[in-house]
Amino acid sequence: MIAFHSRGSTFAYRYSFVSSVWLPSRLQPKHDLQGVGAVTDPNTGLVYLAAGYAGDNRNSMDIYDFETDTMVSNPMSAQALAIFSNRAYYANVWSEKRKSILYFGGYNATLSQISDNNITEFVPATQTWSTL
Fold first, then answer.
1. Rounded to an integer, what distance in angstroms lies between the CA atom of residue 109 and that of residue 26?
2. Is the pTM of this model over 0.85?
């Protein structure tokens, strides 16, 4: 288990069920972007943070690997940005039936509430975005 954006100077803490101990992550994000939700793909164990957490802006999909305590920042495609651009403070959940992450609500880059009620879907296996 991992807890992101913990109090103090540590970006994240990792919990080992084997040793019952919390340990600080080695991760050091470049920026402090709040309002980013994290969802774990139970099939791979990878944690997805849409809108980026360690990037220069909110135009990336950051993927955290618990086993290696590393995070990669993948720029979103133009198609993805048209669907999920600069969103923050959104709600997200893993859909086991669809094998995807569903996103809804939130605020845009100027922190104005998003007016549409669309559900956005990201499928990790194919790296594709769509609006439901």
1. 29
2. no
| CB 47 within 8 Å of CB 12 | no
Tens-digit pLDDT profile for residues 16-65:
888 898 888 887 766 556 778 889 999 999 999 888 665 556 788 889 99
Distance, CA of 18 to CA of 49 (rounded, Å): 26
* Burial annotation 18-33 (CB, 10 A radius, 16+ → b, else e): eeeeeeebebebeeeb
Task: Lay out the sheet containing 100-104: strands in order across.
Answer: 91-95, 100-104, 119-123, 128-131
In 3D space, the residue among 15, 35, 36, 39 whose CA is nearest the CA of residue 96 turns out to be: 39
Report residue 66 as tokens: 């618990």
Residue 36 Cα distances to 16, 27, 42, 48, 132, angstroms: 24, 16, 19, 10, 21
Chain centroid, CA 131 distance in Å:
18
Interatomic CA distance for residues 93 and 99, integer angstroms: 11
Work out the end-to-end distance of the chain between its first and last CA atoms, rounded to an integer number of angstroms: 30
